[in-house]
Amino acid sequence: MSSTVSTFLMFEGKKAEEAMTFYVSLFKDASITHIQRYGPGEPGAEGSVVQAAFTLNGQRFMCIDSSVKHGFTFTPATSIFVHTDSEAELDMLAAKLGEGGQVLMPLGEYPFSPKFTWLADRYGVSWQLSLTKV
Asked: In whole angstroms, how far apart are CA 118 and each of 12, 39, 64?
């Protein structure tokens, strides 16, 4: 028996492709692997994402543009955790992901990491970025 595990991100409106393209631009080992869009007369807005898949450093993600309005959105209770051994990469990710978003824990030294930040990006997706102790 075989299984695949993915992180699934559900956006409202036409944000999935924009977010996915943004995320892929930030990581060296990243790519969009699949995009299926709504066509004319289908339940979602024409051109919006029915389902898409992308990878960030080997981690598989899926995303959609929900055509249904929901009473919820992303929450910091679940976040994407990035470990890096490069302070320059951590600083770049913090700056770019934090642009237009919200800082939940400011970039700094913590007992569990020499440099760490927790933020919600402009799409509401929560990220924890941590410098790996060496």
From this structure: 23, 37, 24
**Is it the case that residue 35 has pLDDT exceeding 80?**
yes
pLDDT bin (cut points 50, 70, 90) of residue 134 is low
Whole-number pLDDT of residue 68: 85
**pTM of the entire structure?**
0.92
60 pLDDT above the threshold of 90: yes
Query: Do the bridges between strand 59-66 and strand 30-37 make them parallel or antiparallel, or are there none, so unpaired?
Result: unpaired
90 in Cβ contact with 127 (< 8 Å): no
Quick check: 116 and 108 in contact, CB under 8 A? Answer: yes
| Angle at the Cα of 123 from the Cα atoms of 97 and 101, rounded to 5 degrees | 50
**Cβ pair 33, 50 in contact under 8 A:** no
- What residue ranges in 4-134 does DSSP mark as E strands? 7-12, 30-37, 49-56, 59-66, 80-84, 102-110, 113-120, 126-131
* Chain center to CA of 60: 11
As given in the structure block, the two tokens for residue 21 are: 């393209």
Please state, as a whole number, how many other Cβ atoms lie within 10 Å of the Cβ of residue 102: 13
